[in-house]
Design brief:
The complex is a heterodimer of chains A (425) and B (320). Helices cover 31% and strands 22% of the residues of chain A. With 425 residues, chain A is an alpha/beta fold. Chain A has a single domain, classed as TIM Barrel (Alpha-Beta Barrel). The longest helix of chain A has 17 residues. Chain B has 320 residues and is α/β, with parallel strands linked by helices. A five-stranded parallel β-sheet of chain B has the order 7-6-5-8-9. Classes of the chains: A alpha/beta (425), B alpha/beta (320).
């Protein structure tokens, strides 16, 4: 099976190709690239006027299967991913049962292959049952296919256990992803603590609940000479701590989510439970700092923290509704609208944040770039096209997005995964 | 009569000074009704008011019910102390069922902030917030400023101190909005652990020294201290709280002014105030309760009374 993409403006992390290129894909690999390929393929796509990006990679997704198939399944999550331009997604282990055993990893990969739309990389738990008590059998999780471990949804708050996790995961060469939240400090809060929580009478989550774990883990990484990846950074102060750590040569990486650079906690005034997310939406100052952090490289990548929830659950009181919003289908549009259009990032830099760096951080050596010999994962984007986020258009099983009604720039036209067209608008 | 065109009463944050003053003026007229032999006027005859309380309440619920009955409305009490989740029925679903029975107004109290606002956006009947989470308790704020105005003849320029657990108090928030809008100078006094973040940006002063603020207070609003706050580690002990922030006669005697003592009830005597103070000559705590009915009658009337011939109707009521 061969595929030829004609007249592509290729966006790699270093540059946008100066002239239209043809890309020949054979057996799932980028076989040949040239300004004019005189060859034929089984199928041809004309990408004139479009950008061709290395397939987007999201290292922070909740697929909910097994356990909460009413919110999302591997199948609906895969459909949502390819619609958003993603060709590889990493799913978090807070399922039921928790992804803390090789068999569960294998079952997820098997189902993802049956669906066959997108590469799914299960993230194993750091602690058994995500209970913060005992480490998982990490080497076995790795053999089953895990590239990273996390207790996402909660932090490994026990400092001694975290130390063990960092040392042990270094030995088996697995990335640790920390959900930075001191549960005693967040203390059942439901939104950012500040003037808005005061006026709304909602329980606040102080920023220090996040930064105290960021600071602690920086110190652990420094002391143990290990690496750590910080999930969904939401605060100016976190960006500053990471910037400091990097300046010291400490091996930390970090991600930020589109909602944390697109929204402030002002939107909670609506009491719309789709604005309830953990970490919570913060202030305008934090939003600006996240964007600056992305710009100067302090924040390495963009992830969605795609967190589907049913309508029934989100129609509860703000206090009782679950945290989380879906994000796979709005991530590129929000990133283009909020970061590229507003001059924080260039297109190549955006590709770096949404494909190249996620591949690098997780060790996907054949992904994240459009180059001969690399995997044929690609996202064809119309960079100028505007579209409106509509509830009924989501492929995700859940519709819990605070961005419904937003007009976004940058539209995913075609998604190619392993040389196969998995989505076409 | 000035303009009133609000459909719901959700918070005092969203009311103008003029709207608050209109409620106070209307309440003044209605206060007299409760002193009559026949305590009933027909302005809401045929209207149905549902009291939907998700939190236990005696005073507020009774006050609303009497207010509605004295205006000749039919009332229905629903105490749904457990959360809506327990029956698997969403709150909105339950409210829509009530709406489907063609009621005119729902007075709601709920432990979660924002519930009255969400209901007002989703439903046709008028909604009155009788307290939502830690957010607002607008009729309490209104009856408090009504009581102050009755005693001082004005609000503007007065020094009003609110003392206690500001963090968890919807009464404090509603009072802050009403008092600021009417021109009072507001000081908040309480333990640092119970002072909400960023509250100073509203233009209020924050103090941790009760004795100092008493010296320049005209009014002291004492909040109820939930005893659970000690278990939640906000306080070392109730004893320590009483020592620093409890109001007793000795502290009042040391102040330079004769301070008006208020409390939204129910009081924790011996904790936030002494029995002597609660029952003393400076206390208007029971007057607040009396005024609560009048203020709620005013709110019910303004929200439900026939809008077009409102002024005529109200005139008839008070001149008969």
């Amino acid at each position: 099976m061969s595929l030829l993409i004609k007249n592509a403006l290729i966006v790699n992390p270093d540059k946008v190709s100066t002239k239209p290129m043809d890309i020949l894909i054979e057996k799932g690999i980028i076989a040949k690239m040239d300004s004019s390929l005189k060859t034929s393929a089984k199928k041809t796509i004309d990408a004139a006027g479009k950008y061709v990006l290395p397939g987007l990679i999201d290292i922070h997704v909740h697929l909910r299967e097994p356990g909460r198939e009413d919110k999302e399944t591997i199948e609906t999550g895969s459909k949502s991913a390819v619609k958003g331009g993603f060709t590889s997604i990493f799913c978090m282990p807070n399922t039921n049962p928790v992804i803390d055993h090789a068999m569960i990893v294998e079952a997820i990969i098997k189902e993802a292959n049956r669906v066959g739309l997108v590469n799914v990389f299960p993230i194993g738990a750091i602690t058994k049952g995500q209970k913060n008590e005992e480490l998982t059998d990490m080497s076995e999780l790795k053999e089953a296919g895990c590239l990273a471990l996390s207790d996402d949804g909660r932090a490994v708050s026990n400092s001694q256990l975290m130390r063990m996790a960092m040392e042990y995961s270094k030995m088996v060469d697995l990335l640790l992803i920390q959900h930075c939240e001191d549960p005693l400090l967040s203390n059942h809060g439901v939104m950012n603590e500040g003037i808005n929580s005061t006026l709304l009478g909602l329980k606040g989550i102080p920023g220090v609940a996040e930064t105290i774990i960021v600071a602690r883990d920086i110190e652990l990484a420094h002391y143990l000479k290990t690496k750590i990846h910080f999930a969904h950074m939401s605060l100016k102060r976190s960006v500053e701590l990471i910037r400091f750590a990097k300046s010291q040569g400490i091996n930390v990486t970090a991600e930020a989510c589109p909602h944390h650079f697109s929204l402030t906690d002002d939107v909670v005034k609506s009491f719309d439970t789709n604005t309830k997310v953990n970490p919570p939406l913060r202030t305008a100052e934090d939003v600006e700092a996240i964007k600056q952090g992305l710009k100067d490289g302090t924040i390495d990548c963009i992830t969605t923290d795609h967190a589907p929830h049913t309508r029934e659950e989100k129609e509860l009181e703000y206090d009782h509704a679950p945290f989380g919003m879906i994000g796979l289908e709005t991530a590129l549009g929000l990133s283009v609208s909020e970061l590229v259009e507003k001059k924080y990032l260039t297109w190549p830099q955006l590709v770096n944040k949404m494909s190249t760096m996620p591949a690098k951080i997780t060790g996907l050596v054949n992904k994240g770039e459009i180059k001969e010999g690399k995997d044929a994962d690609m996202t064809i984007v119309d960079p100028k096209k505007e579209w409106t986020v509509q509830k009924e258009n989501f492929s995700s099983k859940s519709k819990n997005s605070p961005f419904i009604g937003w007009k976004l720039k940058g539209s995913v036209e075609v998604t190619i995964c392993g040389g196969k067209i998995v989505y076409q608008i | 009569m000035k303009e009133w065109n609000k459909h719901d009463l959700i918070d005092l944050q969203g009311l103008s000074k003029e709207e608050i003053e209109l409620i106070l003026t209307t309440a003044k007229s209605f206060k007299e009704v409760s002193t009559r032999d026949v305590k009933k006027v027909p302005v809401l005859r045929g209207k149905t008011v549902v009291l939907l309380f998700f939190e236990p309440s005696t005073r507020t619920r009774m006050s609303f019910e009497l207010a509605a009955k004295r205006l000749s409305a039919d009332t229905l009490n629903i105490s749904a102390v457990s959360s809506s989740m327990s029956k698997g029925e969403s709150l909105l679903d339950m409210a829509k069922n009530i709406e489907a029975m063609n009621v005119d107004m729902i007075v709601i109290r709920h432990g979660s902030s924002g519930v009255p606002k969400i209901l007002a956006e989703a439903l046709g009947p008028s909604i009155i917030n009788a307290g939502d989470g830690c957010r607002e308790h607008p009729t309490q704020g209104l009856l408090d400023v009504f009581t102050i105005k009755e005693r001082y003849g004005k609000i503007a320029g007065l020094n009003v101190t609110i003392v206690g657990d500001i963090l968890h108090s919807r009464v404090a928030r509603s009072n802050i909005w009403a008092l600021i809008k009417l021109g009072a100078k507001v000081t908040l006094c309480g333990p640092a652990t119970l002072m909400p973040k960023g509250i100073e940006t509203l233009g209020v002063k924050v103090s941790y020294d009760l004795k100092a603020v008493l010296n320049h207070s005209d009014v002291l609003m004492i909040l109820r201290l939930q005893k659970e706050r000690q278990q939640e580690k906000f306080l070392p002990s109730l004893r320590e709280y009483a020592r620093l922030f409890g109001v007793n006669q000795e502290k009042l005697n040391a102040a330079s002014k004769n301070i008006l003592i208020m409390h939204p009830g129910p009081t924790n005597r011996g904790v936030e105030l002494s029995a002597e103070v609660a029952d003393g000559t400076q206390s208007v705590i029971l007057e607040q309760v009396t005024n609560g009915v009048a203020v709620r009658m005013a709110v019910l009337y303004l929200l439900l009374g026939t809008k077009d011939k409102g002024s005529e109707e109200i005139k008839n009521v008070f001149t008969h």
